[in-house]
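Researcher: Here's a chain I'd like modeled. Treat it as a single chain, no partners, no ligands.
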Amino acid sequence: MPTNDDPRARFAAVVQAPDEAIDLAEVALLIAAEAYPGLDLDRYRATLDALGDGARARVDAADSDEAKVRALLHYLAREQRFAGNQDDYYDRRNSFLNEVLDRRTGIPITLAVVYIEVARRAGLVVHGIGFPGHFLAKYAGGAEIVFDPFFGLLLTEEQCARRLQAVMGKDTPFDRGYLRSATPREILVRMLRNLKQVFLQAREFEPALACSERILLVQPELPPELRDRGLLYQQLECYSAAQADLERFLALAPNDDSAEVVREKLIEIRRHGGATLH
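Model: Modeled as a single isolated chain. Structure tokens:
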């Protein structure tokens, strides 16, 4: 395994494992380690362990599935004051697990990672839900109980349906497929895409590229990400790398809605023939 000093190499190694073997907290901390050189991963693992111990005491005292979930929510949202950052939702710190653990605030997906990891340490099975627009989580024990880590609330199916329609239109039919468990790889990709968008909005193309590169370590042939990485390479004047990614995107998704725009970009890039990656 690569050393602590090489978070990208460690990230690449860890995400080669089967989904069930991926340590979500470790990989989330490795994402943060690129932005925080020398980050003490053990310190944050210990923080999660301590939170897990605290949660276990509350959960073990509960006498039903719903009571266990309520105990977890009360402990993290009320006692430990983990809450969604409604004041500055797009603060990049919301996307880094170390900052979320230090500041007790974040966005839905990073808070969900906290709940997943604390629940695991407390003996509960909690999965993420890649719900449209707002990441959720669910207890997957004897009963399936959906909750929102951002607000620290249980959700009924009717409330989930209303949230779906608010994002996708009032005529959108709801089915339980929207509540399926997200795999660790899907969670990591969504985390990195959120972070990439923050960097893009700030026109910070090199850290945005780093997000794209890590997404493709998780899912190497993901067409939209090959496209996005190619466009970032173009922005950074790395034309040969941009051409390779965009050509691969078109080979995999020739009928994508963005394919024609990509073909036009390739014409521009080929005018820079001979340029090299730098």
